[in-house]
Amino acid sequence: MKKNFIKKQDFLLKLLSLALSIVLWAVVMDIDNPERNMRFDDVPVRIIGASQLKAATGLELIEGEDTTVTVSLRGQSKSVGEVRASQITATVDISGLTEANEYDLPVTVSVSKSGVETNYVNPGKVHVRVDRVESKDAVSYTHLRAHETDQYL
User: Residue 102: phi, psi to the nearest 5?
Assistant: First the structure.
């Protein structure tokens, strides 16, 4: 009888210890809220300024529009943990380019969550190529002649 009572008490003490440790951990995390990093892979890079570039110089983006980057964010644990990939915007501005060439342009990252800042972006620059694109209308004539023979009937 005494053994069952001790086993019951031992189990209750273990359960109480577990509950107390969970409560203590939650209190410390809420008060302390340590800083941490969070990484997001394959963030698409949006090219901006293409219409201004074409209007000002006649240049168009030829290469560099399907680029992704890895973004690391830093901030309070609670804030960083609430960030979703859809809240991260990576952009490259090509509106200031003046001649047909290849360029390595910096990636600008913004996050629509306060208390979070960009730790790093990899790659930090995106390779783009701009050039003049010309098109001409051409008329093409095709003449087809069909012959009927007994062989195909």
Answer: -105, 140
